[in-house]
Amino acid sequence: MASDRTITERRTSVAVGAMGAAVLVAVLVPLLLISAYNHSYADDWHYGVWAHLALQQTGNVGVAIVTALQQVGKAWFDWQGTYSAIFLMAIEPSVFGEQCYVIAAPLVMASLVAGTLFFSHVVLVELMGADRGSWIGLSCLVVAVQLLLQPSPVEGIFWFNSAVYYTTYHAAALALVGCVLRVCDPRRTSRPVGAMVASCVLAAFVAGGNFVTALVTAEVMVAVLAVLIYQGRRCATDVLPAFALMVLGLALSLAAPGNEVRQQTQFPDDGLGVAQTVLQSSVAAFQYLQQWSSGLVMILAAVSVPIAVRACERAAARGWTFRWPALVVAASIALFATSFTPTFWAQGSVGPGRVQNCRFDLFVV
């Protein structure tokens, strides 16, 4: 009987994994085909022209990279402090030739797939002990729903400047949290040096990206560190370097004089005070929780239930316990609500579609 049950579980796991992978492939293929012709570009030219001219004049990629770094410094004073994002924008694909822009969308989608798969592998397989089929199947469905239902697909997939700034940074944030959780794994037998180094690099990278993703990620890291300290876990010291880099990077980004320049140029009278920002963010969170809970999202949630139950059974067998399940719901809603605060604070609104894209991705996760 036990042997038959094991065989059945394996077959089910394979079926779930294959189903999820097939759905994701069916979603990705048309998007990849479209990306060969969907040349959004927009202000990619404005950000990439200086590195392109340097490459054109010297033929030296190193000089182009140095030029992009110089543009980061100039933007920090004149436009915005998001240092790592400005560098990626300044070195966008068409810097190396107009024909290279065709790789923009595939790069963005690959980052979303990779970031989601890594994060979910750490949570489901490494920590909770779920089977690999369930991990692959559920992760692929999550990415498929995100790609299909993004509020603004052009800004979330095809326009490099926008897509890398929000979709790719969401993926990087997932990878960062995955690395931090791997460092915190109580089953580890040695210090995961690779995960520690990767978490530091990713923390510095994410902190220099869009403020929505950076704020949400910083909040998650604060919560993780607080729990580790409360529980007296020694691995808290292993998380501290990444946390410190996250705080320092975010402080560097926020302190840029260019932020005020951009605020006065684009949104001089649109920002809200603290009270109104909190109120409007809370209202918007419940509004979009309802609006985005569409048919496909509900189907994804339903499919997740048996996988979650099985994963929790395995986690319980490993000794995992949690006394306050309602806290997960409250914390998740609060985290989602805080993703609205940067745009309400600066612009008095939820912001453009590209900002909504990364919020939607967060919502689905």
SSE blueprint and pairings:
Elements: H1 2-35, H2 44-58, H3 61-78, H4 83-90, H5 104-127, H6 132-149, H7 153-158, H8 160-184, H9 193-207, H10 211-230, H11 236-254, H12 257-266, H13 274-291, H14 295-317, H15 325-338, H16 341-347, H17 353-364
Could you please describe the fold and organization of this structure?
- The chain has 365 residues and is mostly helical.
- The protein has one domain.
- It has 17 helices and no strands.
- The protein has helices at residues 2-35, 44-58, 61-78, 83-90, 104-127, 132-149, 153-158, 160-184, 193-207, 211-230, 236-254, 257-266, 274-291, 295-317, 325-338, 341-347, 353-364.
- Helix 3 packs across helix 4 and helix 13 (274-291) packs across helix 15 (325-338).
List keywords for this structure.
365 residues, mainly alpha, 17 helices, 78% helix, 0% strand, globular
Treating each run of at least 4 consecutive H or I residues as one helix, how many helices?
Answer: 17
Number of strands: 0
Low-confidence stretches: none
Identify the overall geometry: globular
Could you tell me the radius of gyration in angstroms? Answer: 21 Å
Mean pLDDT: 90
- How many domains? 1
Relative strand content: under 5%
